[in-house]
Amino acid sequence: MRLKLLSVLLTAGLATSLPANAFDLGNIDLNKVGSLLKDATEATRDVSESEEIKIGQELASTLLGASPLRKNAEEQRYVNLVGRYLASQTERPNLPWHFGVIDNMNINAFAAPGGYVFVTEGLMRQLHSEAELAGVLAHEIAHVLKKHHLHAIQKAAGTNMLADVAALAAKSDQQDKVSKIFNLGRDLYMRGLDKDDEFEADRIGVVIAARAGYDPFGLPAVMQTLETLNPKDSSLALLFKTHPLPGARIEALDKAMGTRFDQDADKPTLASRFRKMG
Ligand SMILES: [Zn+2]
Question: What is the pTM of this model?
Fold first, then answer.
């Protein structure tokens, strides 16, 4: 995984104290890039899977440029083990899935197209079991499966230009221009997805976790924890800005889950295995 490109995208999201000018990418002319891309986008088309992966890679690199992975190889291995097992139970098992814990004390998790999923150290510290971790990862996996971020960026672009951004990104001399487009991605991570996408990711996440053999109540349990925290805590600011509040998510999940998962109440939470990673 490349870690160096586009070091601005998520800076504000991950470190809200940074000054606004941390976003300044220099003086690339956005209009020029726009018209350049527009020429190539007369015929709209879907973004191919390899393009989706390329776009996700750029966004993930940016994310990690702002907040790098924690230097704890054992923990990273563990999170990848859990995440890749969950992903293997989905309809897109062959994406190049990458999971990581990022060195940031805000409480949050992120996904980028193509199979990138990150959890902050701040969120890891709020978890009590592997089933809870699985619930969080599965929510993010669901965003990737449903291409929520990809579609949102595409919508924000106003055209189907993403595919062409990916094509241009393959040419190294266009890299700088292309990086501007990823401002759309930055804005998206700051603003958040549609609430419906979040509720959908919760519902799918629960199903993925259950399919992988975990207690499906891991994700609701995490939300219960979040509900007990002080909502004014700055470490929760971005999460609460970009997601429905935990109470609303619990209520929606409660409705969706109904009695469907009751027979699974004896599924493992693997709390002791999780604690060893702390
Ligand atoms: Zn989400």
Answer: 0.77
Q: Is 70 helix (H, G, I), strand (E, B) or coil?
A: coil
- Structure-block tokens of residue 250: 């619990």
> 189 alpha carbon to ligand 1 midpoint, in Å?
10
Helix (H) or strand (E) holding 81, with range, is helix 73-88
* Residues 236-256 as b or e (16 or more Cβ within 10 Å = b): bbbbbebbbebeebbebbeeb
Closest CA relative to residue 6, chosen from 183, 161, 148: 183
Query: Which backbone phi and psi does 245 adopt, to 5 degrees?
Result: -65, 150
Kindly state the average pLDDT of the residues 97-104. Answer: 96
**pLDDT tens figures, 119-135:** 999 999 999 999 999 99
Find the distance separating the first CA and the last CA of the chain, reported in whole Å: 25
The alpha carbon of 73 and the centre of ligand 1 are apart by a number of angstroms equal to 26
Q: How far is the CA of 226 from the centre of ligand 1 (A)?
A: 14
- Distance separating alpha carbons of residues 226 and 223, to the nearest angstrom: 5
Residues, beta carbon < 5 Å, ion ligand 1: 198, 201
Instruction: Judge residue 167's burial from the number of C-beta atoms within 10 Å of its C-beta, 0-12 exposed, 13-18 middle, 19 or more buried.
Output: middle
Residues sharing a CB contact under 8 Å with residue 178, sequence separation 6 or more, in sequence order: 33, 58, 165, 168, 169
Tokens describing residue 34: 């726009």
Task: Identify the CA nearest to 76 among candidates 133, 5, 16.
Answer: 133
Is a pLDDT exceeding 50 seen at residue 25? no
What is the three-class DSSP state of 1? coil
Q: Give the distance (Å) from ligand 1 centre to CA of residue 109.
A: 8
